[in-house]
Write a structure and sequence with these properties.
Elements: H1 5-24, E1 31-32, E2 43-47, H2 51-54, H3 58-73, E3 78-82, H4 87-94, E4 99-103, H5 111-114, E5 117-121, E6 126-131, H6 136-139, H7 149-157, E7 160-163, E8 173-175, E9 180-184, H8 199-210, E10 214-218, E11 235-239, E12 242-246, H9 254-268, E13 278-282, E14 308-310, E15 313-317, H10 322-335, E16 340-344, H11 347-350, H12 358-362, H13 384-407, H14 418-442, H15 451-479
Parallel strand pairs: 2-3, 3-4, 6-7, 9-10, 12-13, 15-16
Antiparallel strand pairs: 1-5, 5-6, 8-9, 11-12, 14-15
Length: 480
């Protein structure tokens, strides 16, 4: 059988493209998002309130963050993100016991939304951070500093940093740790975050990146609060198959009809393992105490579904409504037996639209049971763009040379000599390897554990074609 240069070039390019196409079809990554109610190494809050956003309430918000941090530190280590200029104030408010401080760029306090999602790698027991590209809840608030919080925190806890293709917030997703998630369409399928993405597109990306097998979609509601209805105000998993759902009993509230729609969906839903969900409803207070945060404030949105679980404790808001507060505490005590219930006054951060999801938005999902991962000083994320550009340029030169070699009219088109075969095999292999490396860089799946082997392959992909090019160049010049 006669083999031509053109035919082998076409076959080689097809083979070179196959790994990238096959990789795109991979059903899931090695990462999964665990249940946040399990054992925790630490928890994170952000001491980031500033007058430009909070105005006259800034000091009240700082005090509320301090109360939250001190309550947490009684049960487990706490990480407080703060600006360098406010370190002393943060230490005064949040305390020093069982607490460490990390200097971070901050616009506000909502680290649950800005800090990314904590994921685990089952086999390697590694911790990862999925950066959701925080954009101020659809560009509703300044966010230049908060957009850097996920990468800053990832470096601080030495996790594998990965950037999602989506824009979203941590408060917008609720998982059971066994493959099922609950989301509100209003905060994900929204042009202010993910223009051009369908619900199916978003579902596929989240399932891949978070190790999910099923997503239960609630409609949510757009434009009523800054978050466009985060799910952690409406539904939370207790454990796989068991959900707490917000049920608003105030007929004057837009949530009255919405929470009933959500309840109908949850009652008819099954999880990733086919179980019908057991639903416990938890109404917000109807008679909260009266103060400057709750009186005459149309954005005040109290609720108990946004509780925080810690090692041995459950933190939840209390609003001065004795009946509603007691019902919430009794329900959570029955669902989390053996944990101490710690009610907190968080009126200052539940009374503004930006605080719609209350304390959980302030508290990043737990850092996980096992810390470790990449050395932040050796992370490649800051070099990813120049590396991609350089690889693209080299790949372009390789394709150009191989194309010219294949169609050169001054030489025979047949593959005749051993040198011809060496050139073809080397170049096709180089293209294949470089496409693979490009794919991994572009999709942020560069694993520090395989950095050495990846670098070796990249070096080989560049060095061998260069050697062959130098060997062939004098022969091509002599033919002219």
């Amino acid at each position: 059988m006669t083999v031509s240069r053109r035919g082998l070039l076409q076959a080689g390019l097809a083979l070179g493209a196959w790994p990238a196409l096959a990789a795109q079809a991979a059903p899931s990554s090695a990462w999964f998002m665990p249940d946040e109610h399990g054992p925790q190494a630490s928890v994170t809050v952000a001491f980031g309130a500033k007058p430009a956003i909070w105005g006259a309430w800034t000091a009240d918000v700082q005090n509320a963050v301090g109360r939250l941090a001190r309550a947490m530190s009684a049960f487990q280590p706490v990480t407080v993100l703060c600006r360098a200029s406010q370190l002393a104030l943060a230490q005064e408010k949040c305390g020093l016991t069982n607490t460490r401080y990390v200097i971070s760029p901050l616009d506000d306090i909502w680290v649950r939304d800005t800090g990314g999602l904590m994921v685990r790698q089952a086999q390697a027991q590694s911790l990862g951070t999925v950066d959701l590209n925080f954009n101020g809840w659809g560009r509703k608030q300044t966010h230049r500093q908060d957009a850097q919080v996920a990468s800053t925190l990832s470096a601080a806890i030495q996790s594998h940093w990965m950037r999602s293709a989506l824009v979203g917030e941590g408060g917008g997703i609720e998982v059971d740790g066994a493959g099922t998630a609950i989301l509100c369409e209003s905060s994900w399928v929204n042009p202010n975050r993910n223009p051009g993405w369908s619900r199916d597109d978003i579902e596929a990306e989240l399932m891949w990146q978070l190790g999910l097998r099923k997503i239960i979609w609630l409609p949510g509601i757009r434009g009523k609060d800054i978050t466009d209805a985060h799910v952690d105000f409406y539904a939370r998993f207790v454990r796989p198959g068991v959900v707490i759902a917000n049920l608003d009993n105030d007929p004057q509230s837009y949530d009255y009809a919405l929470t009933r729609t959500h309840l109908d969906i949850l009652q008819a839903a099954t999880d990733a393992d086919g179980r019908t969900l057991q639903i416990h409803t938890l109404p917000p207070p109807l008679k909260p105490r009266r103060n400057k945060f709750t009186t005459g404030n149309p954005d005040f949105a109290p609720g108990y579904v946004n509780f925080i679980t810690l090692n041995g404790a459950v933190l939840l808001p209390e609003f001065g409504d004795r009946v509603a507060d007691r019902y919430a505490q009794d329900l959570l005590a029955s669902l989390f037996p053996g944990r101490v219930l710690v009610p907190l006054n968080i009126d200052a951060i539940a009374g503004v639209a930006a605080a719609y999801t209350a304390s959980p938005c302030m508290c990043l999902r737990p850092d996980g049971e096992t810390l470790g991962g990449r050395d932040p000083h050796h992370d490649i994320k800051d070099f990813r763009q120049p590396m991609v550009t350089s690889l693209g340029i080299v790949l372009g030169f390789l394709l150009n040379f191989l194309g010219q070699w294949a169609i050169d009219d001054q030489q025979e088109h047949q593959i005749q000599s051993m040198a011809d075969w060496i050139i073809v095999v080397t170049f096709v292999s180089a293209i294949l390897l470089m496409l693979h490396v490009l794919y991994r860089l572009l999709n942020n799946r560069y694993d520090a554990a395989t950095a050495g082997s990846t670098t070796t392959r990249l070096f080989s992909a560049i060095w061998w074609p260069s050697a062959c090019l130098l060997r062939e160049w004098p022969l091509r010049c002599s033919c002219n």
